[in-house]
Structure formats: C-alpha cells, structure tokens
Q: What sequence folds into this?
C-alpha cells in the first residue's frame, strides 16, 4: 500500500518536474531570439533611436554645443519658424531640388541604355570589366573626386577650359566653340549661374555607374526566351528593348529611383568641396539643405536650428519618396514575373 | 502553310559540332516530331528553322525559298516555347495581340483576331489576367493562342508540354492534335518524350548526337527500327537488347543467346550474315509460355513484379541479364519463380553488333 502511495507521489513529482521543465523551455524559446538580436538592438537604440529622438528634442531648443548641455533653452517652434522664414533655407531647398532633378534624371536615362548594351552586346569577362570600370567613380572617395573636379574646373589652369579652347580651334566643329576664346577664363565654380551645373556634372559622373550596375543586374534577370519570343513576334532591337526589356526591369527602376531621390536630396560632399565650404559658393548657388544644416550646426553652432532643418529635410525626403511610391509603386513593386 | 526543307545543315558552337549534315523535308501541312535524348541537337535545329540561330553551313528552305538570312518574322513562323515565354507585364489579351500590334494592325483587327484565337482555345474568361495569375495549362494555351493568332505558315513547338503534370500533358497533347487537325498548319514539334512524338506526329525524326537516326511514321519506327538506338528509344517499356550469335542452317536462321537459348528468327527480316549480333525483344511481344509445346522460349526467374493495372511489368533474370516482360494475362507469379516466356520469330529484331 505504501509502495503504491510512494509510486503515486513519485509520479506527481515527475509531473511537476516535467511541467517546470516545459515552462523553462518555453521561456527560453521566447527569450533566445531577443538574445540573438540584442547586439543589434543595443547599437540601434544607442546610435539610431536615441539620436533621432534627441534631434526632435533638440529642434525645440536653442543650444550651443560649446556651452554644454546645461545651456540648452526651450524655445518651442521658434527654430522652425526662423528657418521657414529664412531666405537661405529656401535657397537651399531650391538648389537641392534643382540638383536632385537635373542630376537624377540623366543618371537613369544614361544608365539604362548603357546597362542594356553591356548585357546584350558583351559577355563574360569583358562585360564585368566594363561594368567594373563604370563602377569605379562610385567607389572613389567623394572628396577626392570633388577635389579632382575642382582642379578640372579651375578658370585659369583647369583642363576643361583648355579642352574648350582646343576645340574652338578644330576645323568644322570649332564653329560650335567659337564663343570660347571671348568667354575665357570661364569660372565654373565662381559664377553663380555655372556652379549648380558644374556640381550636377560631378554628381552624374559619380553615380551613373552605380545605376548601371543595378540595371545590368535587372537586365540579366530577363529570360532569354522572352527576347526570342519578341524576335519571333517581329520585334527589332529597339522594340525588344522598349516593349520587353524595359518593362521587365520596372522593380529595378523603382528601387534605383528611390535611392536616387533619397541620396540626391541629401547631397553634401560635392557642393561642399566644389564651393570650398564657403557658405555654398557665390550667392549661395551651391548651397544644399544638408550643406546648410552643416553650416548652422558646425559653423554657427546653433544646434537647435540645425536639428529643425534636419527634420524639415526628413519631411521633404519622406514627402518626395511617398509621392514616388504613390505614382510608381504599383508598377514598380508588382511581382508579376 | 509552307513546306520546310533542310539541306546539309550543320551547326557548330566553337569546336563542338552539334548538328552534322542534316537533310529533312517537311511537307506542307505535315506534323513532324523531332525526338531524341537531351543534348542531341533537336532544340538547336528548331531554333535554326525559326531563325533564332544561324546554321554554320547548309540551307533552310521554306516553300522552296532560301530563308537562311531571313528573320523569324520574315519566315512567318510562330513558336511555342518550353517556358511559354509569355510577357509577364502584359495581360493574356496583350500577349496574344502583341505581334499584331508590332505589325501595325488596327486595334479593331487585333481585337477580332485575338478573339477568334481565344474562342478556339477557350481563353475568353482569362483575357484580362496576367500570366502570373494563370495555371500551367492555361499559360500553355495562351502560348498556343499567341502562336495561332498570327496565322503563321509554320508552327514550331519546343518541348511545350514538359513543364506540365502527367494528366495535363495528356490533355494538352490532345488539344494540340485537335488544333493541328483543324488548322492543318505545317508543324515541327521537339520533344524528348517518345510517346508524345508518336501520338502527335505524322512522321517522327529520331536524333542522336546531332545526327538523324531514322525518319518514319510512328508505326514504321516501332516495327522496323533502323538501329539499336532507335529500337531502344521507341517503345515503352524499352526493347530488351541482348547479345547473341546468328546462325543460318539451310533456310532457317537462329540466334543463340549467351546462355545457349536458341530462338528462331524470320529469315527474310534478317539480312545479316552469321556472327555476333544484338537481339531485340519488345517486352510486350514476350508472352508467358502456356505449355511445354511452346517454341522460341526463354527461361528465367522472376525478380521484380510491377503491376500497372492493365499489365504486369516483370523483370526476369536470364543468363545474368534482366529481361523486361509486359504480361497482359495478369497471371499471379511469385518472386524467384522460374518461368518460361516465348516470342514469335517475326517479332524478334536482329541488329548488327
């Protein structure tokens, strides 16, 4: 009898131990994913979420970082009001949008046909070589690139002006450059109407290669059978590109455009180096929003106003991207392959 | 409709010659199947006929006109691809009407012709859908519709059913056959499935390693295979091929198998001289011997029984070889049971070794 009771007790003990083990395993199962992502979470909280929230907080304060945290003064929406009525801010907005459009569109208009040619006309190593060559500007330091272009654009010693002069002396085509000798020296970076186009050229030169790589990858995903079907359907080379290849890379175009919109609206290094960091060049013609917020924050030490400008820039980028998603998202994101 | 003729056609990719001096004539309205194992060059040949690939040498003629330099469009061919190759960004209607749009036809005419093709293939309900919203069979029908709508001189099919499941494949096979009977357009059909080739085609071209092995009607190929490859390729289950020795005594000819079994063969169907040969026995021609009086028998032990319903597929060990037998009598047999099978002399094929 006692043995039966012992057995019963033992069975109950075993059941309790099993239940507790199950609970522990369940808790461990819940806890483990958090443990694995905790390194990222810590970095995210420290370097992303905190600065983001601190920027919002800061934008409602006047603060000179040199004076220390104790000198932070709550000013409400003053920073926003001040910037939204500042002519420099609106000039920066205009320049940013101008540069985003004039550099953004050519990047893709040039990159798409080049990528198509690379994929259709070249094979293997040769294609990789050309693609890599075109990608080199993207991986070169922006500061280095901008410095080289700074020298190319130089009025007296720059190679660009020398080329233009040489071209003006070439028979036949020289007629197109007949105006050059009279215009010399052309000061690309110190004339207000030439600064933006000069910056735009550098941006196009630098980022087209990146888009070529994206589009090459896109064209490579188009099945050879589709080109064959198009040939059987009677398409010539242009029609194959227009009716088959181009619609097939819509998701890639959408992705590349998104990156361009976000990147171009944050343009900083090229205008900064090309205008020698001098308040956006003559008449602030090269002043972009990022450049402007750098000036406010680090030149004029008004961190609160800089935070407000950065949040305004965030709103502009979010609005532009939303419009892009609204108009192009349906076709760009449709997975109908 | 157009006739298609290939004269001394060869194709090389670098140093690798994939087609060797092929000659073939496809009559107007004929349905010809190119069949062979993977890598035999049948798809390359079809692409050359389509104008998607250039021949290294030789001529392609359509309606007796030399077309080597013409584009696929100028050849007025339509092609159905293995992957269907439907344009994913276009609806069914746009896919079917695309080639007409490229040709510059009016919207009204495109709509009318697409509608007619859709009626034939029962695609009416699907016209506004994109290919990704269709099943495999529906995509296949759209691909055929796209070809049909052009009213081409020649239809080219590149393994169009190989992506479908077995049941749908049979169904689509019937549809293709019915479609051909209706439109009678010259058709060239590439497949590696001999059943598909046999059931669909008026004539079948058997290829191996870029060479044509035999051209003939399905019945001719089955009854009189030209060589061991054709014999083994045509028929399911495959023909048993055994080593043997041919002996002639007076008017009778016999083959002696490696285990000493002697089989009479029909002398007029065996033009070979005495010596080593390969003996071909179709599994469906081998019958279980009913009594001791049966002639032309082989003895072996059963080592596998595969019931298929209408037949039992048996594997019989005989002189170290495995012999396939298709038994329609469905007599219950046990594994390792010794049995005798017999075959009529006129159904024994003998090939040179």
A:
């Amino acid at each position: 009898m006692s043995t039966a009771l012992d057995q019963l007790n033992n069975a109950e003990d075993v059941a309790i131990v099993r239940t507790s083990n199950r609970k522990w395993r369940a808790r461990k199962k819940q806890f483990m994913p958090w443990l694995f992502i905790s390194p990222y979470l810590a970095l995210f909280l420290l370097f992303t979420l905190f600065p983001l929230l601190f920027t919002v907080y800061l934008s409602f304060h006047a603060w000179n970082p040199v004076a220390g945290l104790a000198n932070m003064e709550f000013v409400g929406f003053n920073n926003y009001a001040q910037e939204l009525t500042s002519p420099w801010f609106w000039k920066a907005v205009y320049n940013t949008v101008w540069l985003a459009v004039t550099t953004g569109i050519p990047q893709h208009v040039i990159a798409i046909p080049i990528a198509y040619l690379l994929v259709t006309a070249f094979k293997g190593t040769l294609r990789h070589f050309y693609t890599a060559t075109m990608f080199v500007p993207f991986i070169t330091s922006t500061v280095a690139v901008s410095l080289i272009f700074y020298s190319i654009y130089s009025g007296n010693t720059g190679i660009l002006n020398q080329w233009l002069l040489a071209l003006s002396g070439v028979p036949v085509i020289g007629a197109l450059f007949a105006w050059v000798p009279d215009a010399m020296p052309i000061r690309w970076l110190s004339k207000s109407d030439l600064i933006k186009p000069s910056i735009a050229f550098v941006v196009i030169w630098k980022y087209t290669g990146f888009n070529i790589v994206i589009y090459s990858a896109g064209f490579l995903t188009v099945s050879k059978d589709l080109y064959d079907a198009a040939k059987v359907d009677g398409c010539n080379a242009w029609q194959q590109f227009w009716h088959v290849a181009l619609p097939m890379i819509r998701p890639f175009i959408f992705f590349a455009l998104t990156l361009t919109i976000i990147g171009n609206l944050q343009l900083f290094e090229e205008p900064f180096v090309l205008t020698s960091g001098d308040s956006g060049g003559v008449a602030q013609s090269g002043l972009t929003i990022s450049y402007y917020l750098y000036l406010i924050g680090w030149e004029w030490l008004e961190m609160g106003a800089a935070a407000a400008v950065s949040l305004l820039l965030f709103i502009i980028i979010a609005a532009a991207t939303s419009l892009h998603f609204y108009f192009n998202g349906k076709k760009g994101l449709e997975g109908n392959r | 409709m157009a006739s298609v003729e290939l004269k001394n056609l060869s194709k090389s990719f670098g140093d690798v010659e994939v087609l060797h001096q092929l000659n073939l004539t496809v009559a107007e309205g004929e349905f010809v199947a190119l069949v062979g194992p993977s890598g035999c060059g049948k798809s390359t040949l079809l692409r050359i006929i389509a104008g998607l690939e250039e021949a290294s040498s030789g001529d392609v003629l359509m309606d007796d006109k030399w077309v080597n330099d013409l584009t696929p469009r100028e050849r007025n061919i339509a092609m159905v691809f293995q992957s269907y190759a439907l344009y994913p960004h276009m609806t069914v209607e746009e896919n079917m009407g695309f080639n007409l749009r490229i040709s510059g036809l009016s919207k009204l005419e495109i709509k009318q012709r697409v509608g007619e093709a859709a009626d034939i293939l029962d695609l009416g309900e699907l016209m506004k859908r994109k290919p990704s919203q269709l099943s495999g069979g529906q995509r296949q029908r759209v691909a055929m519709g796209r070809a049909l709508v052009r009213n081409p001189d020649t239809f080219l099919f590149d393994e169009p059913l190989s992506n479908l499941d077995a049941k749908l494949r049979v169904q689509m096979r019937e549809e293709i056959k019915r479609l051909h009977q209706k439109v009678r357009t010259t058709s060239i059909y590439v497949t590696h499935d001999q059943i598909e080739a046999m059931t669909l085609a008026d004539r079948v071209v058997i290829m191996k390693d870029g060479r044509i092995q035999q051209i003939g009607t399905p019945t001719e190929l089955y009854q009189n295979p030209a060589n061991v490859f054709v014999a083994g390729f045509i028929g399911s289950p495959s023909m048993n091929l055994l080593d043997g020795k041919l002996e002639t005594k007076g008017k009778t000819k016999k083959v002696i198998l490696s285990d000493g079994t002697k089989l009479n063969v029909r002398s007029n169907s065996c033009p070979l001289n005495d010596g080593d040969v390969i003996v071909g026995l179709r599994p469906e021609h081998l019958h279980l011997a009913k009594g001791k009086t049966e002639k032309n028998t082989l003895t072996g032990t059963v080592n596998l029984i595969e019931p298929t319903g209408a037949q039992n597929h048996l594997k019989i060990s005989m002189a170290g070889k495995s012999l396939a037998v298709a038994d329609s009598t469905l007599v219950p047999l046990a594994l390792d049971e010794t049995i005798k099978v017999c075959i009529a002399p006129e159904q024994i094929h003998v090939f040179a070794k």
Q: What stands out?
A: The longest helix of chain B spans residues 166-183. Chain B has two domains: 4-233, 240-352. Chain B touches chain A at residues 47, 50-52, 71-73, 77-79, 81-83, 85-89, 98-99, 102-103, 130-132, 146 (CB under 8 Å). Chain B has a mean pLDDT of 91.
